[in-house]
Amino acid sequence: MAYKPKVGSTMSEPNVIPMADIMLVLLIIMMVITPMLQKGVSVDMAKVNNPVDMHAADKDNAILFSITRDGTIYFRTTKISLSQVTDKVKNEVKNRLNKIVFIKSDARAKYGDVVSVVDDVRAAGVEQIGLLTAKAEKPLTGAPSPGS
Amino acid sequence: MAMQVGGKKGAMSDPNIVPLIDVLLVLIIIFMAITPTTPKGLHAQVPLPAPPNQKQQQQLNTRTIVVQVAQDGSLKINQDPVTWTQLGPKLEAVFKERAPGDRVAFIKGDKNVQFDFVARAIDIMTSSGVEKVGLLTKKVEEGQ
């Protein structure tokens, strides 16, 4: 009888258990890292058509204020009152060339709250403001709908 | 017949984990896609108080463009009401005649309007030829 290789009986499927282990570890690492990468407080940002990239806002020493829907102000991740904004900015920009302050506001926050923060940032001598927004998936035209 | 649990040796020696790996791979891909999002935003300026230039600013006043967002979400360029769709073309018409570096416009919003509206207005302004968007605040208007 001629030699017949037994196909299918041995090594029918690779041993995937070590791979599954590695995948699980990778998954856990990513799940742990992802919330840490986010700067500031998580808010529902306004969506616009043509935002520009702001890599500077990603740096650890970026001056970032977050304004939530109810008007609470956060400096990076700590809650502060409006009266502390000017002092915080003054401290941070003391020896910096690139004076830019980032404001991450909730889409439904009152503009009055944003402007009062801008006013206090201005009082610290900062001219450049970066308003962080998200990019709209679909191009937006016409008037924004209230409450959306 | 009663159910046999772990009776015969060799049958079902290890569970089928291939679907598990599929799910994990998809999850990993999702997390990898989320992670590298760079922050995006709109640049804006606030005019700083400059006492010696006070007169110069007043001369510019007639040419200054101020976009206003009212509480109900309606728009005005200086004093003329415009719709959201007209804002872009109107600003383009004004700013294409101006020299680069002179393309400055200001935005003013009602304090009760949602930030969303103002962000959209700034977005339209920057995409229709305005190089610098100035935020008009209460203190700026008072000239402090």
Q: What is the strand content of chain A?
A: 15-25%
Strand content of chain B: 15-25%
Strand order of the largest sheet of chain B: 4-3-2-5-6
Distance between the termini of chain A: 78 Å
Largest interface: A-B, 63 and 50 residues
The CATH class of the domain at 47-135 in chain A: Alpha Beta
List segments of chain B where confidence is low: pLDDT < 50 over at least 5 consecutive residues: none
Characterization of the model:
The complex is a heterodimer of chains A (148) and B (144). By secondary structure, chain A is α/β, with parallel strands linked by helices. Chain A has a domain at 47-135: Nucleotidyltransferase, domain 5, CATH 3.30.420. In chain A, 29% of the residues lie in helices and 20% in strands. Chain A has helices spanning 17-37, 85-93, 111-123; strands at 47-48, 52-53, 63-67, 73-75, 78-80, 100-105, 128-135. A six-stranded mixed sheet of chain A has the order 1-7-6-3-4-5, covered by helices on one side. The model of chain A has no long low-confidence stretch (mean pLDDT 82). Chain B is of the alpha/beta class and 144 residues long. Chain B has a domain at 51-142: Nucleotidyltransferase, domain 5. Chain B is built from five helices and six strands. In chain B, strands 4-3-2-5-6 form a five-stranded mixed sheet. The longest helix of chain B is centred in the first third of the chain and has 17 residues, at 18-34. The model of chain B has no long low-confidence stretch (mean pLDDT 78). Chains A and B meet through α1, β1, β2, α3 and β7 of A and α1, β1, α4 and α5 of B. β2 of chain A pairs antiparallel with β1 of chain B.
Main features:
heterodimer, A: 148 residues, Nucleotidyltransferase, domain 5, 6-stranded mixed β-sheet, 3 helices, elongated, B: alpha/beta, 5-stranded mixed β-sheet, 5 helices
Outline the fold blueprint.
The complex is a heterodimer of chains A (148) and B (144).
Chain A (H helix, E strand, L loop, with lengths): L16 H21 L9 E2 L3 E2 L9 E5 L5 E3 L2 E3 L4 H9 L6 E6 L5 H13 L4 E8 L13
Parallel strand pairs in A: 1-7, 3-6, 6-7
Antiparallel strand pairs in A: 3-4, 4-5
Helix pairs in contact in A: 2-3
Chain B lengths: L17 H17 L5 E6 L8 H7 L4 E5 L5 E3 L2 E3 L1 H12 L8 E6 L5 H13 L4 E4 L2 H5 L2
Parallel strand pairs in B: 2-5, 5-6
Antiparallel strand pairs in B: 2-3, 3-4
Helix pairs in contact in B: 3-4
